[in-house]
Here is the input.
Amino acid sequence: MKHATSLCLIWALLFPVISLQSQTLTEEQQTQLDALTSYLDNVTISASFFEDLEMLDEEDQDWDVTDLEIIPVNAELQARFKVCQDLNEAEVFTNCAFIYWLSVGSFINLYQIVENDNGQIRQIGTVDTSTGKVQVSVFEEPKVLFDFPMSYGDGFTSIYSSMPDTLDTGFQSARAGSYSVIADATGTLQLPNTTLGGILRLKTIDTGTTTNYFNGNMLNTNSSTITSYQYYLPGVPFPLFTQRKTEIDSNDPIYEGEYIAKGLPLGLLEPTTESPWELLTNPIADGMLMLNHSAEKDGPVLLQLFDIKGSMVFERTLTDPRNSPQIEVDVSEVPSGLYMLSIQDRGTVHGFQVVLQ
Here is the structure.
């Protein structure tokens, strides 16, 4: 039976036929499940893949290997899933999927069972890779991660008050303090006054407590105690699935709980608080950005334009912008379209919608 199963799987891999009869997912739900698989690159299948799958074909298991479908993406197997119909808790979880994650030339390194609940995808169980046993857990109701478009102001504070000393050098953005942050419609956050600089994507953040936690990959630190603290850079898809607890070391958890991303529509942000900066012309028809300000005289000002995908298309530093209350900036080289104007002034970010004609 096991060898027959392997032959069937190999045949299905070489000549994939995607059956829709066993699926109950809507087109929208199918699109979101496919999005989960799109995060994997350069995936290959090792011999141990089939050996491990056969563990799931035992009589005492909840899953039938023959019901699993092979989903080829760019001629490589990136994920396999089936609707939860023969799972013990199937009456609780509808529109479930069984997700396999693989890495190049290695044993299957992660199983996830996820639930699609009205467009929100969350993890509801795992598989023991040593036995193939399906383990379903009902986690606490996950908190909504982001609901865009939105922005954060001075309330984005106290980003963990007891970071290890090894993080004090080269990772200023994770130290306790007050940060003004702008999030665009695709989840890109701009953190001013950080040693990392540039655009960062937050994978998880708890905005409901006095302390907000980051989960990311420390790109500018030589600490040997970091396990899985990961940032997402521009162009990396915003994750749709749940993340579990992540630790810096055994004594300093930086993130706990269940968080999910909810809906990332295209759009731009409105400023959340009154700003000393004002757009004098909008739309901009002649390529000249006209600004008026009532800010105090203190330090340079950084101007940036972001498109609706979160990509920065223009940047200019004004070294002494307060000699006159009005400022002209030539943006004629920027193509016509909708943009987010970010003005970083004395540690505060001011955001405006801009239309270039």
Q: What stands out?
A: The chain has three domains: 2-139, 140-267, 277-356.
